Amino acid sequence: MLNARTLIGTHDVLFITLDSLRFDVAQQAHLPGLGKYFAEWEKRHSPASFTYAAHHAFFSGFLPTPAVPGRHPRLFAARFQGSETTHPQTFVFDEATLPQALARRGYHTVCIGGVGFFNQETPLGQVLPGLFQESHWSRDMGVTSRHSAQAQVKAALRVLDDVSTDQRVFLFLNLSATHKPTHIFHADLQTDSPETQKAALEQAEPHLVRLLEAQQQRGPALVILTSDHGEAFGEDGFHGHRLGHEVVWTVPYAEFVIGAGP
């Protein structure tokens, strides 16, 4: 576990959720660019089985939990009585959410939306982006666009360019490419499957690497890469998510620090 308590204030925070990405798919994908930043995906359990619930948990400090027994200390934690998973290295805050907590500490908070819960087109789609000072979404960032990752990273790079390097940034990006329909990223398959989700991730990876490289040039950052939940493609008769199957609860996770600084 990284020492988030000492990183907050000196480092930007870059938080990327790879929507619906299964752990086994992430493991099998060819990701040479991301492999320069971390050795392997950690197997974790999501606190929820669909996007809206998972992100509410994430933004209050309940990130995916290591998939082994035990009380695992948390990177971030909203303060509440009886917590058994805070640690001297945990960044503990009194606000209800991490975006609010970082804004109070001088961070500029930005959401780059992806799936429908971030599209701002309905009251429900405004809740999660509304936690941030600045938010962006367009149809070419959504799940039906074959160029969503490129559009999302382009918007994120503009944010990094526009904000002074003296200003700390909390940049959150919900990658929509790995959410169904993923067959649009595969030349031969017409039905969503682990193989089409892998193709979607591999297509998005160079764009994510561009973002990491830009952040590294900008300055030091704490980076979190995780899925919010997985996706069932017919296992035991289950399809989709918002259900209690192992392939839905089990997600890939990585955290690391990039750039210069303490």
Which key phrases capture this entry?
Alkaline Phosphatase, subunit A; eight-stranded mixed beta sheet; two-stranded parallel sheet; 8 helices; 12 strands; globular
Per DSSP, the total helix count is 8
Strand content: 15-25%
User: CATH-wise, what's the superfamily?
Assistant: Alkaline Phosphatase, subunit A
Distance between the termini: 16 Å
Number of domains: 1
Here the CATH topology equals Alkaline Phosphatase, subunit A
Kindly state the number of beta strands: 12
User: Strand count, sense and closure of the main sheet?
Assistant: 8 strands, mixed
The sequence of SSEs as H and E is: HEHEHEEEHEHEHEHEEEHE
Mean pLDDT: 95
Pfam families: Sulfatase (PF00884)
Organism: Deinococcus cellulosilyticus (strain DSM 18568 / NBRC 106333 / KACC 11606 / 5516J-15)
Protein name: Membrane protein
InterPro entries: Alkaline_phosphatase_core_sf, STM4013-like, Sulfatase_N
In short:
With 262 residues, this protein is of the alpha/beta class. 29% of the residues lie in helices and 20% in strands. α5 (123-127) links the parallel β6 (108-112) and β7.
Structure description:
This is Membrane protein. It comes from Deinococcus cellulosilyticus (strain DSM 18568 / NBRC 106333 / KACC 11606 / 5516J-15). There is one protein chain. It is built from 8 helices and 12 strands. With 262 residues, the chain is an alpha/beta fold. It has a single domain, classed as Alkaline Phosphatase, subunit A, CATH 3.40.720. Strands 3-2-12-9-1-8-6-7 form an 8-stranded mixed β-sheet, with helices on both faces. The longest helix has 25 residues. The two termini are 16 Å apart. The relative contact order is 0.24.
